[in-house]
TrEMBL record:
One of its GO terms (molecular function) is succinate-semialdehyde dehydrogenase (NAD+) activity. This is NAD-dependent succinate-semialdehyde dehydrogenase. The keyword Zinc-finger does not apply. The keyword Oxidoreductase applies. It comes from Neolewinella lacunae. The active site is at residue 256. It comes from the Bacteria. Belongs to the aldehyde dehydrogenase family. GO terms for biological process: gamma-aminobutyric acid catabolic process. Keywords: Oxidoreductase. PANTHER family: SUCCINATE-SEMIALDEHYDE DEHYDROGENASE, MITOCHONDRIAL (PTHR43353:SF5). Residues 19-478 form the Aldehyde dehydrogenase domain.
Length: 490
């Protein structure tokens, strides 16, 4: 990996402002999913180091919360500027450990930085309230105060943006953070820690624990009374287990869990725009995003035309090394991810689906799967309910608006949904009827720092981004002032 600044490539955890090896020298391998080449041997920390970090983070948090909002804002702003200054190196690290095309990695770095910029500004806007009192001798004021130590667990598919989206609002309001990045992609988080250190965050305010002991470390986060907030992005099954464990300390919790996004195309849609939107939504990051189009529903009147144009566009996508400019799709993250996609497609084809393109592992070998379009798909197939997390697009036919809404909502997930159409009365009806936390209307790209990201139903709760994103890191305190004598007459 040829970086301009080699200091960004770290293999030690970042605890209390210091680069720290595991107590017994344990490490784990981080490899490039494109070719399996070794990128780094990273410190593999355990429960002892985690407990010590929690205690130090609590001590640091008290001091950090005492700083002015303007002080915290200025440090966040410096972090943002440093991230953008090192975009190229951060993108190369990201692509090398995660596999996504370099252009997408650059986009993620900028997207991730936008959260730091946003919350550098919002740090100064965590306003309280004055409420008209219930008695003439009373006054009521409302304070918003940092919740305390925050534990954040982030996934491998967006190893920069998922970090900044959680860490920036927490730091902005005066919380300290202990981050556990995915063990497949810790190098991006560690590079962010290098820049956070240079930006001037005090020791213990931002910590990165690298570990393969996810269950043990996660349980410590959940059960420690010193950790007052857990933010997790990952699978629904793991999220439910963390929620059960957090009940022991009744801590604040944010969960961004699995999705099963419908992508609906009505017969009055702008067809070229719908095809392009579906390509962007489905195949971004090789289909490995929680808001990817997972089920494509197309109205009968334009079904054949959409399928033909979408399949043709899919066939143009080029698989390859994410570090090469011509690559559109990189590899899947690991063997298990590849096997899951293979099983879902095999099950669908065994039950009558047809693969217009792809339908098999790529001839490139490794963790590559050919971009796939499936037709004649029905609700008996596993792919209807599973979160695919791969470059496979199952396309369903529907007749009426009611049919589309019913099919789209037939899932326990409720993260993102998309639809294309021009009838504004129908647009309102459908937008209101879809049981999802986020809805893209005539667009397949909805993520932005200025809007609240999050789901409903079994996709979790809590919001990240926008001014709503501060709320999950704040406690509301009510102050009742009594004994206030009325102003003397005259």
């Amino acid at each position: 990996m040829q970086l301009k600044e080699n200091r960004l490539l770290k293999n030690l955890a970042y605890l209390n402002g210091e680069w720290t090896a595991a107590r017994e020298g344990s490490t784990f391998r981080v490899c490039n999913p494109y070719d399996g080449s070794l990128l780094a041997e990273v410190a593999d920390l355990g429960e002892e180091e985690t407990c010590r970090t929690i205690e130090l983070a609590r001590q640091a948090q008290v001091q950090w919360a005492g700083k002015s909002a303007g002080h915290r804002s200025r440090i966040l702003r410096r972090w943002h500027d440093l991230i953008l200054e090192h975009t190229d190196d951060l993108a190369l690290i990201l692509t090398s450990e995660q596999g996504k095309p370099l252009a997408e990695a650059v986009g993620e770095i900028r997207y991730g930085a936008s959260f730091v910029e946003w919350y550098a500004e919002e740090a100064k806007r965590a306003y309280g309230d004055v409420i008209p009192a219930h008695g003439s001798d009373k006054r009521i004021t409302i304070l918003k105060q940092p919740v305390g130590v925050v534990a954040a667990i982030t996934p491998w598919n967006f190893p920069v943006a998922m970090v900044t989206r959680k860490v920036a609002p927490a730091l902005a309001v005066g919380c300290s953070v202990i981050l556990k990045p995915a063990d497949a992609t810790p190098l991006s988080a560690l590079a962010l820690a290098v820049l956070a250190h240079e930006a001037g965050f005090p020791p213990g305010v931002f910590n990165v624990i690298t570990t393969t002991w996810a269950k043990e470390v996660g349980k410590l986060f959940c059960t420690s009374p010193l950790v007052r907030k857990l933010s997790f992005t990952g699978s629904t099954a793991v999220g439910k287990e963390l929620m059960r464990q957090c009940a022991t300390t009744v801590k604040k919790l944010s969960l961004e869990l699995g999705g099963n996004a419908p992508f609906i195309v009505f017969d009055d849609a702008d067809l070229p725009a719908a095809v392009q939107g579906a390509i962007e939504s489905k195949y971004r990051n090789g289909g490995q995003t929680c808001v990817c189009a997972n089920r494509i529903y197309v109205q009968a009147g334009i079904y054949e035309r959409f399928v033909a144009e979408f399949a043709a566009a899919t066939q143009e996508l080029k698989l390859g090394d994410g570090r090469l400019a011509e690559t559109d799709l990189g590899p899947l993250i690991n063997k298990a991810a590849l096997e899951k996609v293979e099983q879902l497609v095999d099950d669908a084809c065994a039950k009558g689906a047809r693969a217009l393109t792809g339908g098999h592992s790529s001839t490139l070998g490794g963790y590559f799967y050919a971009p796939t379009v499936l037709t004649d798909v029905n609700h008996t197939m596993d792919i209807h309910q599973a979160e695919i997390f791969g470059p496979v697009a199952p396309i369903f036919r529907f007749e009426t608006e009611a049919d589309a809404i019913r099919a789209a909502n037939d899932t326990r997930a409720g993260l993102a949904a998309y639809f294309y159409g021009r009838d504004y009365a129908r647009i309102w009806r459908v937008a209101e009827a879809l049981e999802f936390g986020m809805v893209g209307i005539n667009t397949g790209m909805i993520s932005t720092a200025v809007a609240p990201f999050g789901g409903i139903k079994e996709s979790g709760f809590g919001r990240e981004g926008s001014f709503y994103g501060l709320d999950d890191y704040l406690e509301v305190k009510y102050l009742c002032w009594g004994g206030i004598e009325p102003t003397p007459a005259g």
